[in-house]
Design brief:
mainly alpha, 88% helix
């Protein structure tokens, strides 16, 4: 009987640790997505105002934010990972360009924002 109780306790602890790990991954992705959405919002305002200095300051932050959780997205949501990558790289490149192409960058940023919102909905 003691052996059975020990096995049940060990299984319960193992399950709890596994579930805690899953939750932390989802939390990490959710936090990262929210941070990126805040940044795309700031970028959108800077683009609308034509504030190239602010665009150059804010846009590149997206890469560091994305790199903190992109592997988890790639593993669990391959389609959304590819969709985000499709718009992320050109958005960052556009934000670093010598001249601001407001229309193109605004469109890319909006598409990136939509892809991030899709991921946010999936990780709720």
């Amino acid at each position: 009987m003691k052996k059975l109780t020990s096995m049940v306790v060990a299984f319960g602890l193992g399950s709890a640790l596994f579930l805690a790990g899953c939750s932390s991954t989802e939390s990490k992705v959710s936090d990262g997505v929210n941070e990126m959405l805040e940044t795309t919002g700031q970028l959108s305002k800077a683009i609308d105002k034509g504030d190239q200095a602010k665009v150059k300051e804010v846009g590149p932050k997206l890469e560091d934010q994305w790199s903190s959780f992109e592997d988890d997205v790639k593993k669990d949501n391959k389609d959304l990972y590819e969709k985000i990558e499709k718009y992320l790289d050109p958005t960052i490149a556009g934000s670093e360009a010598d001249t601001l192409d407001k229309d193109a960058l605004s469109t890319l940023n909006d598409q990136l924002t939509d892809a991030l919102k899709e991921l946010a909905d999936k990780t709720k």
